[in-house]
């Protein structure tokens, strides 16, 4: 009888500890595109109110650089990219748990310092001799999006046939991510840059020049749960919440569009 009682107590204590462990806060490590930084920080309190006990640890930067870190074994639970190409690459490499989920979209715009010392008025001015353009490295999706926009502009009436080449010749630096590009323009270390509408709106130190709708493109953001995550269910739950009504409303408040 004594041995039976001891065994029962042991089972009860084990169950109690297991239940306690299940209630311990989950810490989700999210690797996210730099352009999502403000929106995700804004979303964290709302998510914690909806799902108590979940702490979000954000690591932001160029989507391409973050993908490389995951490929090299970085312990991320969720990857939120400024494109679909990087998540799809991780799926092909067997490093994703499930398929990519599109959760937001963005558009592009031109930014200049608030006082616009170079007098840039239209996108055509980006090819003007002497204009200093700040761009992003190829690892950042904004670089590929910008290349498409510049190519579209070159085909518009009134643009020189060699507009794309003249634009490229004016690039004076390539930064790690779009936030670094914005910072360079804020500091007056460049005359213009092409960035996401959301990043332009977040800065009070830049002015914007609209890209014609016929030349602009829609940037689609996608996320995946990283294979091997210790919090797969929690990561998937956050991604589901992000594409739901509450998450979508917060993204919209920061200027993001619904995915196409």
Short description:
By secondary structure, the protein is of the alpha/beta class.
Level-2 CATH architecture of the largest domain? 3-Layer(aba) Sandwich
Which assembly state applies to the chains in this document?
Answer: single chain
- Relative helix content: 40-55%
Instruction: Name the helix and strand elements from N-terminus to C-terminus, one letter apiece.
Output: HEHEHEHEEEHHEHEHEEHH
The whole-angstrom Rg is 23 Å
- CATH class type of the largest domain: Alpha Beta
> What separation lies between the terminal Cα atoms?
67 Å
Per CATH, the superfamily of the largest domain is Periplasmic binding protein-like II
Spatial shape: elongated
Q: Order of strands across the widest beta sheet?
A: 2-1-3-10-4
Q: In terms of per-residue confidence, which ranges show pLDDT below 50 for 5 or more consecutive residues?
A: 1-25
Count of beta strands: 10
Largest sheet: 5 strands, mixed
User: What fraction of the residues are assigned to beta strands by DSSP?
Assistant: 15-25%
Structural class: alpha/beta
């Amino acid at each position: 009888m004594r041995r039976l009682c001891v065994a029962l107590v042991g089972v009860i204590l084990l169950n109690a500890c297991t239940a306690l462990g299940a209630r311990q806060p989950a810490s989700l490590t999210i690797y996210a595109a730099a352009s999502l930084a403000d929106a995700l920080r804004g979303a964290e309190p709302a998510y914690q109110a909806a799902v108590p006990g979940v702490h979000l640890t954000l690591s932001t930067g160029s989507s391409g650089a973050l993908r490389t870190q995951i490929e090299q074994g970085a312990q991320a639970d969720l990857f939120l990219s400024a494109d679909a190409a990087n998540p799809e690459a991780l799926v092909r490499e067997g490093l994703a748990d499930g398929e990519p989920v599109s959760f937001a979209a963005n558009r592009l715009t031109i930014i200049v310092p608030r006082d616009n010392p170079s007098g840039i008025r239209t996108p055509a001015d980006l090819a003007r001799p002497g204009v200093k353009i700040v761009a992003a490295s190829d690892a950042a999706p904004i670089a590929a999006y910008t290349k498409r926009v510049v190519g579209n502009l070159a085909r518009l009436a009134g643009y020189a046939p060699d507009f794309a080449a003249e634009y490229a010749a004016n690039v004076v630096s390539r930064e790690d991510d779009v936030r670094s590009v914005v910072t360079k323009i804020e500091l007056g270390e460049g005359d213009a840059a092409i960035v996401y509408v959301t990043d332009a709106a977040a800065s009070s130190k830049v002015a914007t020049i609209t890209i014609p709708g016929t030349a602009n493109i829609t940037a689609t953001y996608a996320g995946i749960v990283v294979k091997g995550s210790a919090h797969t269910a929690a990561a998937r739950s956050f991604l589901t919440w992000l594409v739901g009504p509450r998450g979508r409303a917060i993204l919209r408040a920061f200027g993001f569009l619904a995915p196409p």
